[in-house]
Amino acid sequence: MYGSVEPDNLRPCVETTMRELRAALASGITDEELARVKEQVKGGMLLSLEDTWSVASRNGSHQQRYGRVIPVEQVVSEVEQVTRDDVLRVAGRVLQEGALHMAVIGPYEDGDELLPLLRLAEPAGA
């Protein structure tokens, strides 16, 4: 995940992001959210095929990782097969307490004050 905000909005942005992650871990995502993400993933991938450098990078990456170039149609099919349960299962495996990291780039002086916000447990009094 990434975001770009003014320094004064960084704390609210992190708080909102963590609240959304907690909600997703607790109850998953909606069918509408899943459909929107699928379209975004497919659209981004298909648009990248218009750029020669992106195609070469994709092909090289696939060759390195999988020993072959995976056809676009197969990737689109696999994206379509992702379920809400799949997302929740992977989120539960990836989003672990104590394993979250954040990088802040820009004119922000006290990143340490943000560290307590990187908790998946619901904050006291929330």
Automatic annotation (TrEMBL):
GO terms for molecular function: metal ion binding. Belongs to the peptidase M16 family. This is Peptidase M16 C-terminal domain-containing protein. It comes from Kouleothrix aurantiaca.
